[in-house]
Amino acid sequence: SQTIHQWPATLVQPVGSPLSLECTVEGTSNPNLYWYRQAAGRGLQLLFYSVGIGQISSEVPQNLSASRPQDRQFILSSKKLLLSDSGFYLCAWSGQANEKLFFGSGTQLSVL
Amino acid sequence: AQSVSQHNHHVILSEAASLELGCNYSYGGTVNLFWYVQYPGQHLQLLLKYFSGDPLVKGIKGFEAEFIKSKFSFNLRKPSVQWSDTAEYFCAVNDRASGTYKYIFGTGTRLKVLA
């Protein structure tokens, strides 16, 4: 069966430090991959999605970037974190049939 | 650009009350529609989905939703809620035709069911 792993679960980082959040999917090939940010009262904001290795679509101009170095690996990065980057980050995947999203457990990022 | 509106941000109900959560989307093309639920401390999970066919779809745990194309709506309903339905509910839309694979979510509705 397919599983999605996302880590770390929580992260506290100082302003100006770099960020790397990793997400991997097992049990499927060529998934569509997504990064969302969840904030209270604002729902799930789509940040990036990828339909293949090296193919990244950005939805919101911001201080973050994403990369997909391998088929089932999706990385969210920042060179210098801002206070406003604090939030709950969710990774998700869908199959090529695109029938639903499967979500990871999320990373709570606090930038201090 | 597509958007999804959920008008009820917080809903408090007593057990056995009926539930209806509103969802409207703005997109003129062919869409897939979803309701996701996030129980306290758990992952987001799919409650139900509509792709085509019968506009009244049934999901898990007694939930159903009705797609009304003329109103761009996909409201979630349950005739009698239980304490265990306390959760946050998200409506989402996916553009079927363009193949962009984007899932756009609403702001969510926090439901609290009082025992």
Explain what the structure shows:
The complex is a heterodimer of chains A (112) and B (115). In chain A, the strands form two sheets. In chain A, strands 2, 4, 5, 6, 9, 10 and 11 form a seven-stranded mixed β-sheet that branches. In chain A, strands 1-3-8-7 form a four-stranded antiparallel β-sheet, with no helix packed on it. Chain A contains no helices and eleven strands. The mean pLDDT of chain A is 92. Chain A is an all-beta fold. The termini of chain A are far apart. Chain B starts with a strand and ends with a strand. In chain B, the strands form three sheets. In chain B, strands 2, 5, 6, 10, 11 and 12 form a six-stranded mixed β-sheet that branches. Chain B has a four-stranded antiparallel β-sheet with strand order 3-9-8-7, with no helix packed on it. Chain B is globular. By secondary structure, chain B is mostly beta strands. In chain B, 31% of the residues are buried.
